[in-house]
Design goal:
297 residues, Arc Repressor Mutant, subunit A, D-Maltodextrin-Binding Protein, domain 2, six-stranded mixed β-sheet, five-stranded mixed β-sheet, elongated
Length: 297
């Protein structure tokens, strides 16, 4: 068997601390060891390698040329081991909660709320899945959407919605009349219960016979992205689309009144297993944050 020159990991750890502090005493304080124990560990490493790593003088130490050359490799190696161990094994000490939500909810309203929850609960990590994901998982908590009026009384109700027109800030001054608004391309989202025709009829009376430059897109985030590039106007739902609209530099067009619409978000818990305390804690935080959003939006 080939004799290895790879030294003890503990020797390397002690050497790195001593070299960084340029002191056996300060290294020992960091590692909870005596200065004498640090010196012995370094000496064992030097004996193993067959070369001195430090020049020793009264009350001070200095790296030798070999020690200076060896130190960066040791630091990189120790850092790589620590990073990989954290990535592979830290999950064993962390509780995971899987949350399923729509694309809009996952991309807009949830990220900041979940970040705050994880900051307040450092032992819990949220795995956020979007509806239609290819990842296979059995969610611990699901955010559902429904248009039935009774959902506003659901025990885990999160929020309702108001329909607004989203535009770029520089377009606000250009929209002072219905004709101004209809000069823009209007993006409808295929899954929305209320589109442009219904919204305009509700606020301005029948628009039959008026030319609407309508285009249909698949999702609200896609519609908002197109608006941010100056391609037209889109209907947004507050408060859920507020964060993504703000991040894209979009504002609510004041010409069209905010219109309450059908639809409510609520939480759904699985019935086939007991609820973990961490899941209940997340559900309560989501409800509190949603109700706050409804009051401030």
């Amino acid at each position: 068997m080939r004799v290895t020159t790879i030294p003890s990991l503990n020797w390397l750890r002690v050497f790195e601390a001593a070299a960084r502090h340029q002191s056996f005493a300060r290294a020992g304080k960091e590692l909870n060891m005596s200065a004498a124990a640090v010196s012995q560990q370094v000496l064992a490493l030097e004996t193993h390698l067959g070369r001195p790593l430090f020049e020793r003088a009264a009350n001070r130490i200095n790296l030798t040329a070999e020690g200076s050359d060896f130190l960066p490799t040791v630091q990189v190696s120790l850092g790589a081991i620590e990073s990989k161990a954290e990535a592979l094994f830290a999950r064993q000490r962390t509780e995971r909660v899987t949350l399923l939500a729509s694309q809009l909810m996952a991309m807009s309203w949830l990220p900041r709320v979940l970040a705050a929850f994880e900051a307040a609960n450092p032992t819990i990590r949220i795995d956020l899945l979007m509806e239609g994901t290819q990842r296979k998982a059995d969610p611990d908590l699901t955010i559902r959407f429904g248009e039935e009026p009774h959902l506003v009384r659901h025990p885990t109700w999160l929020m309702g919605m108001s329909h607004v027109v989203m535009c770029r800030e520089e377009d606000v001054a250009r929209i002072a009349s219905l004709d101004d608004l209809l000069s823009f391309r209007l993006y409808d989202v295929a899954s929305h219960a209320i589109g442009w025709t219904a919204l305009l009829n509700h606020n301005f009376g029948p628009v039959h016979g008026r030319h609407l430059k309508l285009d249909v897109v698949d999702t609200t985030p896609l519609a908002l992205m197109m608006i941010s590039q100056g391609l037209g106007l889109a209907i947004g739902h507050l408060p859920v689309c507020g964060p993504i609209a703000t991040s894209l530099g979009l504002v609510v067009c004041p010409f069209v009144p905010r219109t309450p619409g059908p639809g409510n978000y609520y939480l759904e818990l699985p019935q086939d297993r007991p609820q973990r305390p961490s899941v209940g804690r997340l559900a309560q935080v989501l409800q509190n944050a949603a109700h706050s959003s409804m009051r401030t939006t």
